[in-house]
Amino acid sequence: MKKQFLSLFAALVICASVNTFAQGMQDFTLINATGVTIYHVYITPHNSTTWGPDVMGADVFMDGDEQPISFESQEDVCFWDIKVDDSEGNALKWLEGIDLCTYYTITLHYADGKGWATFE
Length: 120
What we know:
Radius of gyration: 18 Å
CATH architecture: Sandwich
Order of helices and strands: HEEEEEEE
Structural class: alpha+beta
Largest sheet: 4 strands, mixed
């Protein structure tokens, strides 16, 4: 009985560790190369129709700055979309399903009414 309890306990610890690791896998560094100041950053799973809460750690995110983005998610997905609110009141969106399980540095670009991202 004691052996079974220890085995079950070990399995639960491993599952909890894997789940915690998976939730933190999407953390990344965001680089603002949009040409504007960013006030809010929102992340949502690529297949979602709603945006999560603002995940930006700073009050403002100046053009050329880097910002570590850490967010907790109950979603078990790798592909995410990003939306930012800029200093001019515009909502800029990157809806291509950015793979946050593979890339750890995302640079957002915006020019001539189009947004794109580069990845490292």
